[in-house]
Structure formats: structure tokens, C-alpha cells
């Protein structure tokens, strides 16, 4: 029997993009449930999601009071999904930059034993489309920085197209996660690695959004750099402490 799967799609002002991604997702994976987590979008995205859920019993909506960050939206969605008995929980952007047609590859990796499957732009077969050079450089640099500071072997630890086993999310303790921006992705990947769990990277094609605006800003970048440095230094200090203790 196939694992019961929920795709969590956070939204904030995605009125144009949301019906497109849901239509493609439902066509590509008709058995996969959808949870739209809307942060009280002023453009009516939440109300649209409600109408879609009335038309399709596999579409659900979680309304939040305001714009609280990507990480908080995903945690709310994961918490809802775990409470409702899903076996696999998926992260997917609303703007089709994560192609719904490629979700099958992530789910296949989970079915073959991965605890976390990441849709990777930086493994053989992965690529980006229509990205300006500065976005390419920023993404590549962020991954190099994270790998250097954390000592991880994950090629695309900043990626946001992911599938988690429910047991993985339960082990990494969602209640203690404070990351709200895009470093949330690094945080969860890092915690998964620290638990000794299996991470599979599945090649995907990341497509730059065609409608709406990017949510990336300088505050997100600063948060990511600061937290990654803290995690890396903390891990190194813990390793050094353990080595010194072992010598005594």
C-alpha cells in the first residue's frame, strides 16, 4: 500500500500561482493530499484555497493570522499533517518553481528507504532554469558556506523541495526549531543528518517563478549566515569537548 502523503504549500499573496500548482499536482499525483498554509494573504489567496477545498476533498486549508515566515508555516503544516496521520510530508513552493511532475522521484526515494528526500539542483541531472546569474551565485555560495561550516555532504542543503518520513520529523523535534526564513531548510537538513538518518538527493529542474514576487530579502540572508555559523561552531566545540574528555 502506498504511503499516505501530504504536500504542504505555504502561501502569501499567491492568488495567480496557487490554482496552477494545485492543478498540476493533482494531475501528476492524484492520490496525494494537499494542505495550503496561508498567512492571511491580503490578495485573497486564502479564500481561493477555501473554494478549491470545497471542490476537492483531498485539498485542505490552514489559515494563520499573519505573515510569520516560511519556517513557521511549514512547522504549522507538518504539525497538522502529523496529527492527521500522514506517513510522508512534502514541502513544495506555490509558484511551480518546484515542478509537481517531479514529485514522483522524491516519493520513490522515500519508498526505497530514504528518511529525507531532497529535490537537488546540484547533483548530476539537476539544474536551474531562467535564474539570473546573481541568484545562481547566491544559491551556490549558500550551499558551499553551509557545507563548509557544518561539514555536511548534502549538495543542496538549501533546497526547498523535500519529502520527509513522519518518523524523521518526529525525531528532529519540530517544537525546538526557531528558524523562520530560508535557513529553515538548512536547519531541518542538518538536524536530519545529526540523527544519523538517510538523506537522498534526487535531481530536479528548478524553474524561476513566472508570476508573483520572490520572498527573499537581506534579512533572510543574514539570518541564514548567522545561524549556520552558530550551528557549525557549536558542533565543532562539542566534538572538541568529547575528544578532550576521551583522553582523560
How would you sum up this structure in a few lines?
With 248 residues, the chain is of the alpha/beta class.
What does this structure look like?
This protein is of the alpha/beta class. The protein has a single domain, classed as Spore Coat Polysaccharide Biosynthesis Protein SpsA, Chain A. It is built from 8 helices and 9 strands. It has helices spanning 17-28, 45-55, 70-83, 103-111, 133-150, 166-171, 183-194, 218-247; strands at residues 5-11, 33-38, 59-63, 88-91, 116-120, 127-129, 162-165, 199-203, 205-207. The strands form 2 sheets. A 7-stranded mixed sheet has the order 3-2-1-4-7-5-8, sandwiched between helices. Strands 6-9 form a two-stranded parallel ribbon. Strand 1 (5-11), helix 1 (17-28) and strand 2 (33-38) form a beta-alpha-beta unit. Helix 5 runs parallel beside helix 8 (218-247) and helix 7 (183-194) runs parallel beside helix 8. The longest helix has 30 residues, at 218-247.
Keyword list:
8 helices, alpha/beta, seven-stranded mixed sheet, 248 residues, Spore Coat Polysaccharide Biosynthesis Protein SpsA, Chain A, two-stranded parallel sheet
